[in-house]
Amino acid sequence: MILKSYVGAGGKRKKGRRVKKRKTSKRGKGKVRRKTSKKGRKGRKRKSPKIGDTRRNDAGRLVVYKSYVGKNGIRKKGWRIKNKKKKYASFSGKGKRRVAKGVTRTFKRGQLSSIRSRPGSSSYGQYKNIPAHLFCGSAGGAARYSYPVNSRKRAIAALSYAHRAPRPQGIRDCVHKIAASKGWLGPRGHIKRR
After folding, report:
1. Which of 75, 129, 147, 186 could cross-link to 136 by cystine, CB 3.0-4.6 Å?
2. Per the confidence metrics, is the pTM higher than 0.85?
3. Would 191 be classed as within a structural domain?
């Protein structure tokens, strides 16, 4: 008997003691219990992976065994998806690219990366579906389509990152102006979270 979670007769999940299922194999007419040692059967022993090893995971994607830094800041070793696409893919080539809703710009080679290297402009061109009048970057001396303020959370984020722009007070004034027009300001002039 083992303690486990299971679905009862009424369809509700319960916790209780259940009979542990035995591994069986068909030999002849009757079912015979399979004998297994602690070490496992011969030929089933797995080698520990080395850094750089690749394989396919259950979903069929190519994964590589490598060293990485986890969410808690501790270095770990494990299987990671190889060539995983970044949320915002880098674009250093030339051509047309949408930078805001209804706004398309033509870039020369390396022009976009040089714009993003300016202070407070690292997110330029990443908010493609936000209208052009809801950006505050140009008010603070950063790139024109940076510091989006289309929601309360982004307005608060723009205020917290304003110090990265050349003129932080311009960003703050612009954010408060948009927040006042949307009705997000509280009685003391701060942005309400809800």
Report:
1. 147
2. no
3. no
